[in-house]
## 1
Amino acid sequence: MFFEKLSKLLNSAFHRTPQYITVSVAEAQSVSQPAAALPPSRLPRHVAIIMDGNGRWANARGLPRSAGHAAGTEALRDIIRASDDWGIEALSLYAFSTENWARSKEEVSALMSLLLKYFNSEIDELDEKNVHITILGDVDGLPEPQREAVVNAMARTKDNTGLKLNIALNYGGRAELVRAAQRLAEQVKSGQIDPEDIDDMLFEQQLYTRESPDVDLLIRTSGEQRLSNFLPWQTTYAEFIFDPINWPEFNRARYMKCLREYADRDRRFGGVKTDASGEVSP
Ligand code: IPE
Ligand code: IPE
Ligand code: MG
């Protein structure tokens, strides 16, 4: 127990300080990019990913869709580790939407089995790495074994101070907003707050993501260019990158490519760009 605590402490003290990060030459070549360092100030604090294209990846190989989902969990492992290695503060992953229940019974059950397998096999390492797991979505709507696994994972990692890993399961963005509105209405009804007290900050406190900053970068794989009900509030000012590759083929080199592209973007938040001297640039 003592060593576990010590290792977590060391992890957060040294490892979590964002480092200048570089890609190896081999990784860089695989995405035809020169290896280059990224300063921590140009890194996104919160990355959200819509992991799409598992079915198409499997179809293209004559495999069942479930094989695509299984292959997708390998990419997932790689991207979580990379986020932790590179000092990203929060990573939100879209794993199962409220709309995904519409898929065949076989596919939903394959996804649920993978989910359980994933949590059982990864939880020790994630906890050891000081990762703080939050489930975004309605956990009570999950089958009992899955519900139990994710509730335990959240409880076990609740005091961890490293990467904030948000996994969206049975998640719908509109449902999240409606839930927030209901909770605030309850508070008004019980006299805890007045309607005029409700502002962005109070609203955000009712969201599943209340512990994470706004999303800076949203990545969607498979070439689709839509949100599909993912984090509508949190992505209001996010930069979007659509990678045409299917999720099972996404890897840390492509992730780095996205981070580089993000670092080159000019975020203005409705204002005007100023240079170091305070002059307004064209
Ligand atoms: C994303 O891949 C995984 C989930 C939605 C769970 P898809 O299963 O949507 O793959 P495509 O879009 O059909 O290729
Ligand atoms: C979004 O992908 C949900 C997840 C990645 C979990 P979908 O494949 O379900 O979205 P649509 O149907 O293409 O919009
Ligand atoms: Mg899809």
## 2
Amino acid sequence: MSELKINTFKHKINYLEPEPEILEQAAKIIKRGGLVAFPTETVYGLGADALNAQAVKKIYEAKGRPSNNPLILHINNLAQAEKLVYLDDRAELLMREFWPGPITFVLKAKDIIPLETRGGLDTAALRMPDNKIAAKLIEFADTPIAAPSANTSGRPSPTDFEAVNHDMDGRIDMILYSNNLNKNIGIESTVIDISEAQPLLLRAGGTAKELIDKVLMKNFNLKLAQPDEQSKRRSPGTRYRHYAPIIPVKICYFKDNNFINLQDNNEWGFIGLHEPDKNFNFKKILIFSSLEDYARELFKSFRDLEAENLQGIIAELPEDESGVGLGLRDRILRAAGAL
Ligand code: TXA
Ligand code: MG
């Protein structure tokens, strides 16, 4: 990757009432083709003008991301979607049902979207974030904002200022950050491909699969399918090792009041929903009281434990696939290199 060179402005911004003068400054950077990291309800995004190919190229550079891995275009109203992709009744219904929120729809792209933004594909991914700072930034910039997670490619996605700053300081023009009142989801949006007759779940995430299936079943007598090998090629992001700390991650399970696969190691850390027995000697133990808390803290825990010079992390893989469970399992399995 290229050397540090850019002076990165850092601005705290109010979560409920984002200050217009700060938004104005950030929007100006986006309009002239620069990069701004900003909070969303899932993870921090690294934004650029989605319709400016040169600006989008800078995203790939700042992240060290392969340029065939397409970006999500963030919008703040349905009229914008219409300009970017081909909509049908099903797409509109799903968008009205789930937006704003942690769900991304892949649809056939219109020519207005540069190939750089969609990684050379004939489809594009759209999302309307449920976060006032993100929504206002899109409004002020007056353009869809292409934004992957604001981490170095392959690393855990950032869920706080420190993580964004660690990966992006000196590489981007501005970081907007806020106290999000602990309401963020912590893992990325659910990505579904609705560009063809059979809707596909490309990435489990913040919006529960069962909720999407319910709406699809009621209105179209359909359910999400898993992508086969061929359609996986349509979602290049699922091909790479992801979300991984530098230190190894191993998985254990909790079943019938017992841990399976739990190895004792006093140089390792433990994260999960259940406390290991006192005779297990972990250097650091982080227990979460719900799936939601686990998901919210997962990426930050990876980064924190790595910074504490542990040799590795044992992560409990939750059994529960409901709600955010499926996405949480996916991120843990990927971090462990098991997907
Ligand atoms: O929650 C999120 O989705 C966050 C926040 C910032 O919005 N963004 C995010 O972006 O996670 P990123 O770039 O880290 O992940 C986008 C995923 C990748 O797996 C990518 O391959 C997939 O969406 N994707 C984007 N465009 C696609 C397309 N046209 N077809 C298939 N998959 C696509
Ligand atoms: Mg990412």
